[in-house]
Amino acid sequence: MKTFTFLITLALSIPCGLGAAESLEQQFRNPPESMKPYCYWYWLNGDITKDGITKDLEAMAKVGIQRAMIGNIQEDPKSVGPVKMFTPEWYALTRHAMKEAARVGVEISMFNAPGWSQSGGPWIKPEQSMRRITWNEIPAKGGRFSGTVRPDIQPLVQDVAVLAVPRKGSVTLHPSALTLGPSSWIWIWGEAGARGVGPGTRYFRRVIKVDASAMLTASMIALADDSYTLWINGKEVRRGPAVRNVGDEFSIKEYLKQGDNVIAVAVTNIEGSAGLIAALRIGYLIKRRGEEMFCLGINHFVLHVVAHQARDGVPGYNPGFGTSFHRNNPWFNESRDWVRYLQRVHLMLQQGNPAADVAVYIGDFTPQMTGPGDPAPAGYDFDYMGSDAILNNLDVVNGKWVVYDEKQRNKIAASYEFLTMPESGYIRPQVLKRLDELKQTGGKIPAVGVGQALRESGVVPVVSETTGGLRWKARELDDGMIFFLSNFAAAGKFEAKLRVTGKVPELFNPVTGEIKKLARYKAEQDGTRICVQVNDPSDSFFIVFREQQQTPSVVKVQADGKDVGPGDLALFYDVNSRLTAESASKGLYAITLSDGTTKSVIIEKDSATLPIAGEWTTTNKDEKGFSVFREITFSVPVGFGKGQKVELDLGKVEVMAQVTLNGKEFDTLWMPPFALDLTEALRTGENKLKVLVTSTSNGKPALGEVKLRSVSSQRIE
Questions:
Q1: Among 46, 80, 469, 561, which one has the highest count of C-beta atoms within 10 angstroms of its own C-beta?
Q2: What span, in angstroms and rounded, lies between the C-alpha atoms of 29 and 41?
Q3: DSSP state of 126
Q4: Does residue 226 contact residue 268 with C-beta atoms inside 8 Å?
Q5: Strand 645-649 to 707-715 pairing
Q6: 93-106 pLDDT tens trace
Q7: Could you check whether the bond before residue 655 is cis, i.e. omega within 30 degrees of 0?
């Protein structure tokens, strides 16, 4: 299946503290409004409607967008909508957006565009402004040439170069050696070339200028992942099979005209992945990438991009950049629980202070946003530091480099063992002077490698002795630590030593909001070794250390003389600090505690499975069949799951599912395992199950083999 490139715009770190009225557990389970993500809301090419604004904002409010940042973007200079910026119509629509945002509870801000640096304004002279390269091609027959070469498109152009290319024999024109990669596609809704293609298709368009009188030959090379259809100037020219490597080359001379020619290609992927799959699978597919960014220090997302949808209809208006978050993509309307997951991660990563041991100076020149890629050894964390922080916010306290809170100048926001000075090229004298002053007060800038300096100073890694690869981030609390673990190399048992002692680890699951106090860990002199089960490489956990250890931990579990992992026997302490075991496999398990005592637990029943058999009733939720309701009535026999936890397993889901059982609605499932604890809602006899499945391809929402399964839970005395 083809892969896609996703873009998320990420906000800079935003500090946060817990409200006095709610505990960390309460806020984690029900994250506050302030933790909702923001989004860019692009109004493209002047194609704006009052009805579309209202529906966009209502959709944002429904899924949990806190703030929409309006940018008026002219993506296509030749595609100008009916509403021009700063006209009375535009002002009226902008006022309508402000009013509707207030009504539905979405904050609004506006920003200057175009350009990443938000350039533009009366203070920018034309010759200082951003600009694009334009060109013109004029065929000549040889000898002396007299003519205007400069593109006649706009005033204030600046000449770059005139190039003369000799022509030998005929000219083969490649309007595009089109490498139809997923990141280059632009779907243009409503054009003639797009009307004849269905969902699951990408539509690409470009304009070329041709001097037909001087053209001897012209050919096209198309490269597609599966099949494609080509139009030239509105006429269908060719339909082709998959030609992924060598390309499909053919003549197009007869279809070209003098001047501008519109080349359009629609490409379909047989697995349904061209088009909407990139957006619909957003939650799960970009979870690892998003968590990579969290582990680099980002702690609040701005989704890029919610394009304004002037009209209803799949696939909607999708710009040629970013990832499409909008109401015309079916996944978006079912994404509330994915957004709630983001809120939980935002909340946790804004607690406390960074747990980095190294500050890294990035240099004294612009533009400069980061320093070297890996300036600290594996297992240690670092923060980049610029000249402004050194001059205005850096100090040395008790031999450590410290940075003060910008809002509370007497409060230390971060501290570091060492400050490193990679080769940066430039540094101002006043910055060197300030660093020399701070070195005199005890600030340490290692002359040797920072890894050697850390080891010689006895600073152990924050995360070490892992049984597999991962990405992580740590935060220091006033009396504890938070570790974010993600991007695991593989599913299965995972162990790591974390730099914290004397406290009990708790597992906070950001996807479900579930919190469990782990029993399986081992306190060591310089850290705590944890042992958890990873069900999917895209799992992620917060391991929180807050409470002092009062009860012994579990250091070994065996059955029939063999070690047993947490996937076979889960162990945790309940709210009353009672040791509890959970397993799907019956047997006698021997447990060794950290104080040397041993206990045993008998799991009396294997997991029982009850397939949900019978005919499902399926009805479309939307006219295209991207979301469907599947309903069934099934019977649970007397005694099934008695005294056990009962889970619903949906098997492999394409790709999101929301379950309602006997009138109780559960959270939307958007990543494996697609399973839910239904113990409280399930009853003996008749049960009514409804599953809303949202898919990536037209009419193909799918469930796996749906079944109930029981899991035994046993308190250990």
A1: 46
A2: 29
A3: G
A4: yes
A5: antiparallel
A6: 999 999 999 999 99
A7: yes
Beta bridge partners of 532: 494
Residues contacting 316, CB < 8 A, separation 6+: 189, 307, 309, 324, 326, 327, 328, 329
15-34 as b/e, with b when 16 or more CB fall inside 10 Å?
A: ebeeeeeeebeebbbebeee
- Of the candidates 289, 264, 294, the one whose C-alpha atom is nearest the C-alpha of residue 278 is 289
pLDDT in tens, 450-481: 999 999 999 999 999 999 999 999 999 999 99
From the list 465, 469, 462, 503, the residue with the least C-alpha distance to 483 is 462
Q: Which residues pair with 677 in a beta bridge?
A: 647
Among candidates 137, 149, 50, 47, which has minimal Cα distance to 96? 50
Report phi then psi at 9, rounded to 5: -85, 130
Cα distance between residue 57 and residue 104, in whole Å: 7
Please, what sign has the CA dihedral across residues 20, 21, 26, 28?
negative
CA distances from 329 to 201, 279, 307, 355, 659 (A): 14, 7, 11, 39, 20
Torsion angle, alpha carbons of 474, 475, 481, 486, to 10 = -30
Strand order in the sheet with 412-416: 394-397, 400-404, 412-416
Q: Is the dihedral of CA 432, 438, 441, 447 positive or negative?
A: negative
714/644 Cα distance (integer angstroms): 9
What is the C-alpha end-to-end distance of the chain, expressed in Å? Answer: 51
What is the identity of the amino acid at 113?
A
Q: What is the pLDDT of residues 26-77, one digit of tens each?
A: 999 999 999 999 999 999 999 999 999 999 999 999 999 999 999 988 877 6
In the numeric block, which tokens belong to residue 201? 């298709």
Question: Do the Cβ atoms of 551 and 572 come closer than 8 Å?
Answer: no
**Which is it for strands 243-251 and 107-110: parallel, antiparallel or unpaired?**
unpaired
Could you tell me the CA-to-CA distances from 30 to 24, 340, 475, 513, 676 in Å, in that order?
10, 8, 21, 8, 18
CB 678 within 8 A of CB 648: yes
